Amino acid sequence: RISDEGEWVTCAGGGYVASGRPGWDKVPLPVFPVGLSLNNNEGAGEVQTPLRIDPNLRNETMHFFEQNRVVYFRHAKA
User: Fold this and answer.
1) Residues 21-76: pLDDT tens digits?
2) What is the DSSP string of the chain?
3) Which of 27, 30, 23, 68 is nearest to 52 (CA)?
4) How far apart, in whole angstroms, are the C-alpha atoms of residue 7 and residue 63?
5) Residue 1 located in a structural domain
6) Could you tell me the maximum CA-CA distance found in the chain, to the nearest angstrom?
7) Is residue 19 part of a domain?
8) Would 2 be classed as within a structural domain?
9) What pLDDT, in 10s, does the model give residues 2-20?
10) Is the CB of residue 2 less than 8 Å from the CB of residue 8?
């Protein structure tokens, strides 16, 4: 789901968190499309993952979402 303001996209899921002590080095990172980043207050989740759309890359990101609604994550152990 893309927010009405075009600032956020919410994914159904968000990859698997690595084992060990909790920390930002254990969460999967969005890698495609470009311009997406995790929310500081809520990381990748099993149910939903909110991602912020970088204002400088919004046009490129939104162009991708016009044709496709998939976000690829790099697992933390990759």
Assistant:
1) 878 888 888 999 999 999 888 878 768 889 999 999 999 988 888 888 889 988 87
2) -B-TTSSEEEEE----PPSSS-SGGGS-EEEESTTEEEBTTB---SSEEEEEEPGGGHHHHHHHHHH----EEE-TT-
3) 30
4) 14
5) no
6) 38
7) yes
8) no
9) 887 878 998 888 777 888 8
10) yes
Distances 28 to 4, 43, 63 between C-alpha atoms, Å: 26, 9, 24
> What residue numbers bound the domain in which 32 lies?
8-74
pTM recorded for the entire structure:
0.81
Give dist(CA 76, CA 68) in Å, integer. Answer: 24
Q: Which amino acid is at 70?
A: V
Q: What domain count does the chain have?
A: 1
Quickly tell me which residue has 């929310």 as its tokens.
39
